Each structure stands twice: as structure tokens, then as C-alpha cells.
Amino acid sequence: MSADAQPASVVIVGAGQGGYQTAASLRERGYRGRVTLISAEDTLPYERPPLSKAHLKATGQAQGDEQLWLRPATYYVRQSIDLVGGTVTGIDPAARTVRLGDGSRYDYGHLVLATGARPRTLDVPGAGLRGVHTLRTARDAAALRASLAAAQYAVVVGAGFLGLECAAAARESGRAVTVVEALDRPLARALSARTAEHFTRLHRREGTRLLFGERVVALRGDRNGNVASVELADGRRLPADLVVIGVGVTPRTELAEAAGLPVGDGVTVDARLLTGDPCISAIGDCAAFPQVRSGKRLRLESVQNAVGHARLVAERLTGAPRAHYEELPWFWSDQFGTTVQIAPSPPTCAGT
Ligand code: FAD
User: Does residue 4 lie in a domain region?
Assistant: First the structure.
């Protein structure tokens, strides 16, 4: 089948931001074939950004998953989107089927990989202690929120967006907070030194301790297996009954790799988001795509990117192919009541 022909069925692996949007955009564009959205998580598709922001604060009202849902359950029924719970464990590109952990199989005319990413962990002693958290899913957020409610001393490892947002939520919840970053400033991957300085000042003004150029070598526990301190390379120990690891993510490429598709830092796709197989696309956090302007291969982790990718694939599958994906990336973050929007041209900071 040619990549631009309308397939009789579309199977989407991963029901996060990109997977949901692919299904929704297909229906918005009048696609009448079968749409199957397969989710490894036991909740309806939801948005992740609140997980490190309002949703996390121990001082706020406890929130249920339903407040995060992108759509209620009735939406999927009305739109004839088959939501299937389970983990896809294999793809057979020759037979055009995917296999789930429970042995069931789904045939596809076109397959969309929207598998996202998983948080990196720290490769140090004590990383498995109770009270040490990563944050990707609603379930992670519930566990982190419970730990935060009981914590006094929070240490956040990594001063990227996720780490700083968690630090802000912990500080606003009244905890003593220390952020430890291996580089010499926060947000080094995303922002200029000048804009990053804004965040350094913001957090210090709110009473958060920021340590730059410091490496965590171990997490130490008490006799009950709860984290008690964070040990730095110079031997200092920071008291901690809650540790958040925010040191980035790894794209989930294992399905693509096992199916013989090219992968690098993400599933390798062309400018139309097609993998090496014309019947398989990859989108969102898991996809490494060529940016037309710079000629560089990019993998972005943002809602805008996942949604934009999903729309492009839906257009292609409904007979309106675009030559390439070329939206300008942008991102936002909320910290201490300040919303910051970041775009490639001069960034804008808007206090809210
Ligand atoms: P995901 O939303 O991660 O969805 C992937 C889904 O695929 C997951 O549900 C996963 O379980 C499932 N899956 C994986 N493998 C399989 C399999 N084999 N079988 C079945 N299912 C599978 N972006 C912003 O733009 N602004 C923000 O402020 C912001 N804040 C964020 C805060 C947090 C805490 C997090 C975690 C992310 C944040 N992001 C933010 C990033 C944004 O949420 C992601 O870029 C976006 O969710 C990516 O969408 P995706 O569909 O590619 O992946």
C-alpha cells in the first residue's frame, strides 16, 4: 500500500497526547475506517502537564484522574474509537498485525507508534528506596503527591522543566526544597543563560536552595527502607524524606527496534513522519524527525509537538498529505504563579 492511500483501519499504539489526538483528528477529518487506540495505562487518555503543576500541590484539593482526561468515556463510544487496554508486545510488519501481552492480535492498514518516553532513573546506590520518585504518569503523580503530603525535606535532582515545576509545587506546599543540578545552571537544554537566570532568581526568591555543578553519588536510607538523605560527590549529605528524579526521559523505541525499523534517539521517521515501513508512522515524544529549516534530526517532548505530529498523520491518512512537518516548536511552564512561554524567536515571559 502507498503511504498516502486511505487505509481500511488504523491502529494506534499509546493513548497519550499524540495517540489520542491521532484518533480524534482522524474522526474530525471524516475517516470512516476502524480506529483502535491501545493504551498500557488503566485510565482514559489524559494530559500530563498538570501532573507537575497544580495537580501536585499538597495544599490543593485532591484531584482525581478524571480532571485530567482529554475527553470523557462517552466521546470514544460516540466517535467509534475502540479503546483497548493492554500493552503491545510485538509488531509483525509483514502480516500487518500487532500482538498484545494477553495474546490478542489486531490487524492494521496503518500503524501509528505513539509510545512516548519513560523517565530516566539515577544509576546510584539507593535509587530504589521508598520516597524516591520519577514522574511520567497519573499513577506516578498520585504516589508523589502522597509522599509530598508527608514530607518535610524534598530534594529534586535535575533542574529541567519537570524538576523545577516539582520543586515549585513542593515549595508552595511548605516543604524545605533543594534542587541539585550537575550543570552550572538550570534549563540548559532549553533556554539561554539569560532566561535561565530568571528561573534561578525566581526559585531562590521563594526560598528554594539551588545547587549547581553538583553530582549525586548515592541516596541513603533509614532502617525502614525510606530515603533519608542525598549524598553529593564532595561527601555532603542533604536531608531528604522525598526525592524527585527529573533527569530527562528515554524514548520508547523497543517495539520499533524489534520490528526491524530504524531507531536512534527515537524512532527514525522522514519529514512526513513515516518510518522505514510505509504502513507505520511514529509521532510525539518517541519520534526523531528531520527539521526542514535546520536539516537536523529532532526529538521534541511537548504537547504541541505530539498534537502537531498527530494532525499531520491524520491528514496524510485521509488523503491530504503535507510534504513535511515544520511547525515552530514552542513550550510553556508554570512555576510560582508565573507562566513562561518559550519559542525559538526571543522568548516571552508573561506573569499571570
Ligand atoms: P505520552 O503522552 O507519554 O503517551 C504515550 C503513551 O503510550 C503512554 O500512555 C504509554 O503508557 C503508552 N505506551 C507506551 N508503550 C506502549 C505499548 N507497548 N503498548 C501500549 N501503550 C504503550 N509538555 C508541554 O508542552 N508543556 C508542559 O508544561 C508539559 N509538562 C509536562 C509535565 C509532565 C509531568 C510530563 C510527564 C510531561 C510534560 N510535558 C509538557 C510533555 C508532554 O506531556 C509530552 O510531550 C506528551 O505527553 C507527549 O505525548 P506522546 O503521545 O508522544 O507520549
Answer: no
Largest separation between any pair of C-alpha atoms in the chain: 62
Question: In this predicted structure, what is the pLDDT of residue 122?
Answer: 95
Which residue's C-alpha comes closest to atom 45 of ligand 1? 302
Average pLDDT of the segment spanning 43-59: 88
The band of 350, judged by pLDDT with boundaries at 50, 70 and 90, is very low
Number of domains in the chain: 2
Residue 1 lies in a domain: no
Q: Verify whether ligand 1 is closer than 6 Å to residue 334 (CB atom).
A: no
- For residue 168, being part of any structural domain is answered with yes
- Per-state percent for the chain, helix, strand, coil, to nearest 5: 25, 30, 45
From residue 78, alpha-carbon distances to 14, 70, 106 in Å are 20, 15, 21
Q: Give me the domain span that covers residue 13.
A: 9-118+250-349
User: How many angstroms is it from 48 CA to the middle of ligand 1?
Assistant: 6
Rounded to two decimals, what is the model's pTM?
0.95
- C-alpha dist (Å) from residue 43 to 17, 104, 117, 135: 13, 20, 18, 16
Note the helical H segments in 88-155. Answer: 138-150
Residues 156 and 242 in one domain: yes
Position 2 in a domain: no
